[in-house]
Design goal:
The N and C termini lie far apart (150 Å). The protein has 3 domains: 35-121, Immunoglobulins (Immunoglobulin-like); 127-219, Immunoglobulins (Immunoglobulin-like, Sandwich); 236-451 and 482-522 and 540-587, Glycosidases (TIM Barrel). It is elongated. The chain is built from 12 helices and 26 strands. By secondary structure, the protein is of the alpha/beta class. Helix 6 (343-360) runs parallel beside helix 7 (381-399), helix 8 (419-425) packs parallel to helix 10 and helix 10 packs parallel to helix 11 (525-548). The strands form 6 sheets. The protein has an 8-stranded parallel β-barrel. It has a 4-stranded antiparallel β-sheet with strand order 1-3-6-5, with no helix packed on it. Strands 2-8-7-4 form a 4-stranded mixed β-sheet, with no helix packed on it. Helix 5 (303-317) links the parallel strand 18 (282-285) and strand 19.
């Protein structure tokens, strides 16, 4: 027998013996051999707090024993067509506990073959606030809201105009998504003073997952003084009669952040005394407020700024002069936002600011008037509808503070304070107090004479040095284009007549809140004298005709260029201009 034959016989013998061995095994033993492949389709499942179902496959042809200890988890075997794969539905109930839970499920087919499945579930989110109602007085205050929770939550304040989140004093610790215990946190909020007489309410919503807790805040209205007519006897017409001539403290208190930021010195009592000494008895005090706020959430005005404005007002009132304070240009927060999309936001701010201003100045008598804004940028009826909301807000806010403000004379502005716009589509707000409203417009016509700073290429764009029909004679030779037929005496009368027929004749006096023309400087003394003559005549004529038509004139004095007082030079006056103005005020007679 050769070696190949011996090898073949040996292989045959081994195979024969192996088959004999298999034939001699029991059925159970054969199954154990076949079940060597024992595997789970997943090693772990993670469930959220709401629980749910998952499918697990087990690769085995032997029914395994399953053991675990948890009543929140169940396993059900499903019917399949496979002898080697078993299907199970794993069901986890919602977790109502505030801690994570976890179990190991053991699958076994004999003592030596086991598989482990880990099932974990996130803790239930927990949020609880015991005190859900705060009843507060009208003063500013802080509240601490105690919260129990298992996880970070969101905070939503329904009205951030007077409620502000200050800080979180303590907060739950966490590791990853799951919180292992309920922890305490304290949220602190600032509640601003309620200047209005009415109670107000808002809410703070704390949200964690699908659950929210709502805290209600009710704040009492500020004590509203009873209407006080002492020193407030004059209605709008009677008060207008008392104003001989008005002057603007321009480019001072309306300057953002700094009274002296635009080149004028700080206003002093001696300055106002100097104005009074000329015969002028009314001062318009343009005011900024937006840059003097403590923040842009509560719109609270700094006490120091309210005090400063009051100081200047007192210079006037104590001098038996009439004073007007307004919300001026003020960084354009109102003036450039007379739009539908900004209406709610601006009206709210207007109400909050004027409530503070009116409350602070409430004890002044009728010598102090309030003006709602300055030159609102409105050129059509759509914008006018928005402006009417702002002006109604102003009136309501002032009246709502009671005391002398129940009778104070108030000034509302025409669209762009433009005479034509005001005549064409002004829509008056209403006042619960009769005959206490005044209208305001401004007058800087013709532009080429009053305000234009440099020549343009067209003839009508040339600067005008001369004004008035009699002064046309000076526009000759090289100055032939320095006078224009537009905007002279007849135009003044036409424009002011519009205000008379629409307002003055209907018991609504008009404040000509700003008017004036730039005093230009020339090297040629002859030209300078002729220009000065036109400037003086212009101001005298405008003042006279303003009063004749029921408009109370307030000259715009910026402290330089267009001015009658040199504030940096002990209030030295431009006598030629001042005398013309005083003469015009004496000649003018109010038609009421």
């Amino acid at each position: 027998m050769n070696n190949k034959l011996k090898v073949g016989m040996n292989i045959f013998t081994i195979m024969l013996l192996f088959n004999i061995s298999l034939w001699s095994c029991s059925d159970d033993d054969k199954k154990k051999v076949d079940a060597v492949e024992f595997k789970l389709s997943k090693e772990s499942f993670s469930f959220g707090k709401n629980g749910g179902e998952e499918i697990l496959y087990v690769q085995t042809n032997v029914t395994p024993t399953i053991s675990f200890d948890a009543d929140w988890c169940t396993i059900k075997e499903e019917t399949t067509n496979s002898d080697k794969n078993r299907k199970y539905t794993l069901t986890v109930a919602p977790n109502t506990e505030t801690f994570q839970r976890s179990i190991d499920i053991i699958f076994a087919i004999n003592d030596n073959q086991t598989q482990r499945l880990n099932v974990s579930q996130a803790a239930s989110e927990y949020l609880f606030i015991e005190n859900k109602l705060y009843s507060l007085n009208s003063e500013e205050s802080y509240i601490d809201i105690q919260i129990k929770s298992t996880k970070g939550y969101s905070i939503e304040i329904a009205n951030e105009a007077w409620v502000k989140h200050i800080e979180t004093k303590a907060i739950a610790d966490s590791t990853g998504y799951v919180y292992t215990e309920v922890t305490n946190s304290t949220e602190q909020f600032f509640i601003d003073v309620n200047q209005m007489p009415e109670d107000r309410a808002t809410s703070i919503t704390f949200t964690l997952g699908d659950y929210s807790e709502i805290v209600e805040i009710i704040q009492s209205g500020k004590d509203k003084p009873a209407p006080d007519k002492t020193g407030m006897e004059s209605d709008a017409i009677e008060l207008a009669k008392k104003m001989f001539l008005g002057w603007n403290l321009g480019n001072s208190l309306e300057v953002p952040k700094s009274e002296i930021g635009w080149g004028n010195p700080k206003t002093t009592k001696s300055m106002i005394d100097a104005v009074k000494a000329t015969g002028i008895n009314a001062v318009r005090i343009p005011c900024a407020w937006n840059s003097y706020l403590e923040d842009q959430i509560t719109y609270k005005i700094k006490e120091s700024w309210l005090s400063r404005v009051k100081e200047v007002v007192s210079y006037c009132v104590d001098n038996d002069m009439y004073a007007i304070i307004n919300i001026h240009w003020d960084e354009e927060w109102l003036e450039r936002n007379c739009t539908v999309d900004k209406q709610d936001e601006v009206a709210r701010k207007q109400s909050i600011l004027w409530t503070q201003i009116a409350t602070y100045f409430r004890d002044f008598d009728e010598h102090l008037l309030f003006a709602g804004c300055n030159e609102p940028d409105v050129t059509n009826k759509t914008g006018m509808a928005v402006l009417k909301v702002y002006e109604q807000t102003f009136i309501d806010a002032v009246r709502g503070t009671g005391g002398k403000n129940a009778y104070r004379n108030l000034i509302i502005q025409g669209p762009l304070t433009n005479i034509d716009h005001t005549y064409d589509f002004m829509d008056m707000a209403v006042d619960v107090v009769p005959n206490r409203l005044m209208m305001e417009v401004h007058y800087y016509d013709p532009w080429q004479f009053a305000l234009k700073e440099e020549d343009g290429p067209q003839r009508w764009e040339k600067l005008q040095y001369f004004w008035g029909t009699e002064n046309q004679k000076h526009a000759v030779g090289e100055y032939s284009e320095r006078w224009n037929e537009y905007g002279n005496e007849d135009f003044v009368i036409t424009q002011f007549a519009k205000m008379k027929s629409r307002y003055s004749d209907n018991n609504i006096p008009v404040i000509l809140g700003e008017f004036g023309a730039t005093h230009r400087k020339f090297d040629d003394p002859v030209l300078q004298a002729l220009h000065d003559e036109s400037i003086a005549y212009f101001h005298k004529y405008v003042i006279t005709q303003a009063k004749n038509h029921g408009l109370v004139p307030f000259f715009w004095d910026m402290g330089y260029d267009m001015s009658i007082f040199e504030r940096k030079n002990n209030m030295k006056t431009k006598d030629f201009l001042l005398n013309a103005m005083i003469d015009g005020a004496k000649e003018g007679v109010y038609p009421f």
